Amino acid sequence: MKDFQELPKVRDSLSFLYVEHARVDQMDKAIALHRIGAGGRHQVIPVPIASLQMLMLGPGVSITHAAVRALADNSCLVAWCGEEGVRLYAFGIGGTRSARNLVLQARLASNDRTRLAVVERMYRKRLGPIEAGCTLQQIRGMEGIRVREAYAAASRATGVTWRGRSYKRDRWASGDPVNRALSAANSCLYGLCHAAVLATGFSPALGFVHTGKQLSFVYDIADLYKADLTIPTAFESARDGPDEIERRVRIALRNRFREGRILQRILPDIQDCLSIDAKDVTPIATQGDDYDKDPALPGTLWDPQGDVPGGVAYGDTPSGNGETSSPQRD
Predict the structure, then answer these.
(1) I need a labelling partner for 9 at 20 to 30 A (CA). Which of 16, 37, 202, 215 fits?
(2) Which residues are CB-contacts of 250 (< 8 A; sequence separation ≥ 6)?
(3) 8 Å CB contact between 88 and 79
(4) 150 vs 156, 182, 233, 323, CA distance in Å?
(5) Can you tell me the distance from the alpha carbon of 48 to that of 31, in angstroms, rounded to the nearest whole number?
(6) Which neighbouring-strand residues pair with 46?
(7) How far is CA 34 from CA 70, 260, 273, in A?
(8) Which of 250, 252, 204, 179 lies closest to 90 in space, CA to CA?
(9) Which residues partner with 112 through β-bridges?
(10) Is 196's pLDDT higher than 60?
(11) Given this model, what pLDDT does residue 176 score?
């Protein structure tokens, strides 16, 4: 098995692979997809996973325990989703064992002053410079205008009629093609941002602009890219007709992810929004903490004077609060 120093960095990874109606099994150090192809022939498709960021499992997929372990060893997020990837049901864990980024994110999100500063930075990344003195309500109004203009510009460029955003989960087929394409495209973008957030040790639930949902922070990050990625891609796919529109927009968006090197942008954008220096971030490919060197090692214990080692029998010392000469690990 490769160690964490050998694993590729998030920014160098492939974006995602969507699979449905197949059996996923381990093959050597990777996985293989078993499918029934044309003429009833059994197909075996090897899939390298060392540089794959996320595997999306759609309907009709069965996966072996060995395959899940191989994916986890390579820090590839596994997501169980609905048909065409438009719903998320469950997901695996990220690739880092360190809580450093999560603790910093929680500190920023739990203080109104620092949270507002992060929110303003997120909006500036979308809107550009914001005039001093603008209230948050005014900034949200400017963001609403920006999004409406993005829809209108895509409509003019493609000739696709735009009647407004409409999405009903219980009546998916009743939506017009462009709205279905937008939902499918946004789902893929959420999945990719979700994988990057988990892989770098942040919490998908601790949002700044968004709040109250398990994917609030994912929505915060995904909103940075919608106007450039999912909106134009959805309108272009709708222009080509409604047939298999979810599949076509997913493929087109995957190509756009690769061409735009989106994974190289997500982590620096998170760092910028949270005002984090590169040295304070723990990517999945480094061994900056013992937790990534060996997941079996215990974490540290909080102390007002500074964290102390965990897994130590402190009661073995005369004072009961010092470390023994040979710490006992659980």
Answers:
(1) 215
(2) 18, 84, 85, 184, 185, 188
(3) yes
(4) 10, 13, 12, 60
(5) 7
(6) 32
(7) 16, 31, 42
(8) 204
(9) none
(10) yes
(11) 85
The residues near 320 (Cβ < 8 Å, ≥ 6 apart) are 314
Q: Are 32 and 25 in contact (CB under 8 A)?
A: yes
**CATH class in words for 100-280:** mainly alpha
For residue 84, what is the DSSP state? G
Q: Where are the domains of the chain?
A: 10-91, 100-280, 298-330
Task: State mean pLDDT over 7-33.
Answer: 75
pLDDT tens string 252-268: 988 888 888 887 888 88
* H-state helical runs in the chain: 65-73, 100-109, 112-127, 136-158, 177-199, 216-222, 230-239, 245-259, 263-273, 290-293
Residue owning tokens 């500036």: 124
Sign of CA dihedral 287, 216, 250, 45: positive
Identify the CATH assignment for 10-91 out of 3.40.50.300, 3.100.10.20, 3.40.190.10, 3.60.110.10. Answer: 3.100.10.20
301 has pLDDT over 80: no
Produce one character per residue of 72-87: b if its CB has 16 or more CB atoms within 10 Å, e if not.
Answer: eebbbbbbbbbebbbe
Report the distance separating Cα 287 and Cα 277, nearest Å. Answer: 17
